[in-house]
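We close this part of the discussion by returning to an individual protein. In the encoding step, the backbone of a single protein was reduced to a row of integers, each denoting a local shape. The sequence in question and its structure tokens are set out directly beneath this paragraph.
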Amino acid sequence: MRAGIWVVLGLLAAVAAAQPAPKAAAGKKGDPSGEAAALIGPDIERAAKAATALGGYDAPAAHDALLDGLALGLPPAVAAPALAALSAHPAPPDVPALRRYAGHHNPTVRSAALSALAVYPDPNARAAIVAGLHDPQAMVRSAAAGAAARGRVRDAVDPLLLLLAKGEEPAARALAQLADPVLAARIADQLGKVPEPMLALCLGGILVRNDFGPDPARVEVVRAISKLQDVSAIKALTEYLDATAKLPPRPSRAEAQMIVEARLGGGK
């Protein structure tokens, strides 16, 4: 019966949370040829600045210059901003280049490539993000977790749960952004398998999201947090109280208030 409630809540939330993909911001006009030349020049500092500048142009030539430079091979200090700039105006041909750099020997470059891949709905981009969650470097896993959250990569849920069990904060934050009521219930079931501070961080992150709901789902999250013995549970509930208005009345907020007062001996 309880599982059925979560499924119904999940369906309601999925409808409520559906949003169109963000449009790329308008860029500047003009001739990017100077920045294009600097991108592949010998001055690394100037090339890095040129990479960032090229991302600000509307002109297809600027995008092409970034792709060409990445195809030729750029030093890590230039490749990282070039990858970020490329995703400012995403296009399907970008994905192979970004995936290639997601396997770069430099972890900063891998991180930049994975972060950029978040804006591409291509299945290959999503697969690269999931693969990044298994990277040996923590900074790369962190970038992949952030990309999974921004790109709404559902295939990332299982590896993120594994990272959550290892106590990795980026995984907790990513799961909090991805969670609908059904996933929230699954996260709550990790009690005893996940370090309590990380579980509180994740569930608390779900709770403060304006787009999470309906409120009965929030009540379930509040109750899941209440089962945690670590002080992080009170921190998560207090942050929810601080982030929400008292009116109109909300059952989840009232329950959180009661739990906090009981734990603190009537302190809040």
Remarks:
- The chain has 16 helices and no strands.
- The first helix runs from residue 2 to 17.
- The CA atoms of residues 123 and 153 lie 10 Å apart.
